[in-house]
């Protein structure tokens, strides 16, 4: 499979799932996903031989629709079936205009907001949105939510039962705010997943660009900030956050394909255009009166983006941002970020106390980062032997060989080797 065909199928699969789920209803979301997956496999068999159809999304949709209708006729003969006519939304799919351009497809927006239904717990809203909109596997979603695959599968099964009678529609007015936070969380996790996959090249399917998910998350965040039904200061704040992190992606991987820590990234490799665009969104986010966690995270990202060098980073300002963030979100990730900032701001003993309190309960996905942070805090206090032991624990806890190699290099650098 060529990279071009992989990217095409990834993009069109999302549109087909959104449209089919809209017709069948969220109670049949699993059926829509399975039908589109089967249609995608048929495309992989036929398109390389017969050529890509003029309207690939329409092709996938029609094949998936017939599969879904056949399944419903067989298993639920009394279920009302959708009209077999081709949806107008597939008649003229919008053309791509670059990685950050293009109009948001209304059906994707509808599916995202419908999946983030307030009848579900917040974490379930996010899990369902990740599964339905982007087709992420449970193995990829579970670590993002600090869950297990089995627990996540049960959660999603209950969600589909709960939402069985609901149809897809973009909520408006008073219906929108209860869903917005989960939508923003979903997009942030989509970006994070893409960022992780980029540093774990072996995890990405052959020919698929792992950074495509990062660009898609940025595209959707910017579209949400611009869409009349979803525009809000926090949407601009999220767009700023993702753009500012996206600007650093070009410096995160070296020419050998290895991960580079933030302090070692050549800043002339960062994307200055994305930084400027992120700062524009950050300014737009200040039109509101509420200070959200997205504003604070974007502020932290802006401090990193605007610092001309690692040494010039305003770590005391970042500490203050984290202190405010913890009032909104006292979960493990912000607590870890706060401790790291304390050590960098010249308070390693305070950072050590925070990390030792955090480590007994930190999720597995953050274990390596927490151990490495404690190693750095100890090293800054001159306790190199203790620090080396925590570096070893960090390497052993790494979730992927690429991350273990990064930690080993940072360990050697800290030891002066």
UniProtKB/TrEMBL annotation:
Q: Name one Pfam family in it.
A: DUF6596
Q: What positions does the domain DUF6596 occupy?
A: 179-285
Q: Which domain of life is it from?
A: Bacteria
**Mind listing the GO biological process terms from this record?**
DNA-templated transcription initiation
Which residues are listed as membrane-spanning? none
MF terms in GO:
DNA-binding transcription factor activity
Q: Where is the RNA polymerase sigma-70 region domain?
A: 12-75
Record-linked PANTHER family:
BLL6612 PROTEIN (PTHR47756:SF2), BLL6612 PROTEIN-RELATED (PTHR47756)
Protein name (record): RNA polymerase subunit sigma-70
Q: Which organism does this record belong to?
A: Inhella crocodyli
Q: What is the lineage of its organism?
A: Bacteria, Pseudomonadati, Pseudomonadota, Betaproteobacteria, Burkholderiales
């Amino acid at each position: 499979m060529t990279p071009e065909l992989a990217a095409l199928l990834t993009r069109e699969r999302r549109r087909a799932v959104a449209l089919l789920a809209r017709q069948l209803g969220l109670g049949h979301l699993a059926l829509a996903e399975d039908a589109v997956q089967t249609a995608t496999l048929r495309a992989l068999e036929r398109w390389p031989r017969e050529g890509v159809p003029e309207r690939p999304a329409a092709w996938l949709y029609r094949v998936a629709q017939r599969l879904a209708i056949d399944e419903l006729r067989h298993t639920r003969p009394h279920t009302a079936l959708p009209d077999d006519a081709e949806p107008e939304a597939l008649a003229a799919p919008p053309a791509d205009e670059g990685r950050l351009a293009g109009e948001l497809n209304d059906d994707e927006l509808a599916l995202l907001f419908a999946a983030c239904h307030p009848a579900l717990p917040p974490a379930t809203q996010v899990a369902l949105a990740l599964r339905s909109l982007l087709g992420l596997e449970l193995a990829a979603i579970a670590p993002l939510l600090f869950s297990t695959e089995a627990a996540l599968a049960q959660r999603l099964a209950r969600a589909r039962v709960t939402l069985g009678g609901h149809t897809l529609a973009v909520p408006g007015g008073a219906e929108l705010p209860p869903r917005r936070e989960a939508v923003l969380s979903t997009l942030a996790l989509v970006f994070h997943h893409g960022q992780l996959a980029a540093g774990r090249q072996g995890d990405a399917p052959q020919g698929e660009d792992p950074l495509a998910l990062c660009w898609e998350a940025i595209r959707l965040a910017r579209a949400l900030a611009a869409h009349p039904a979803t525009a809000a200061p926090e949407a601009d704040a999220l767009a700023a956050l993702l753009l500012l992190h996206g600007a650093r992606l070009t410096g995160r991987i070296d020419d050998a394909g290895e991960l580079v820590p933030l302090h070692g990234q050549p800043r002339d490799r960062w994307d200055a255009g994305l930084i400027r665009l992120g700062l524009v969104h950050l300014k737009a986010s200040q039109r509101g009166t509420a200070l959200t966690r997205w504003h604070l995270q974007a502020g932290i990202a802006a401090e990193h983006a605007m610092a001309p060098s690692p040494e010039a980073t305003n770590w005391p300002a970042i500490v203050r941002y984290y202190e405010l963030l913890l009032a909104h979100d006292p979960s493990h990730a912000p607590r870890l970020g706060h401790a790291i900032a304390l050590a960098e701001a010249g308070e390693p003993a305070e950072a050590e106390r925070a990390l030792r309190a955090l480590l007994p309960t930190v999720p597995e996905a953050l274990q390596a980062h927490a151990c490495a942070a404690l190693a750095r805090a100890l090293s800054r206090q001159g306790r190199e032997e203790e620090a080396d032991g925590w570096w070893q624990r960090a390497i052993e806890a790494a979730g992927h060989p690429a991350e273990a190699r990064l930690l080993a290099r940072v360990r050697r650098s800290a030891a002066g080797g």
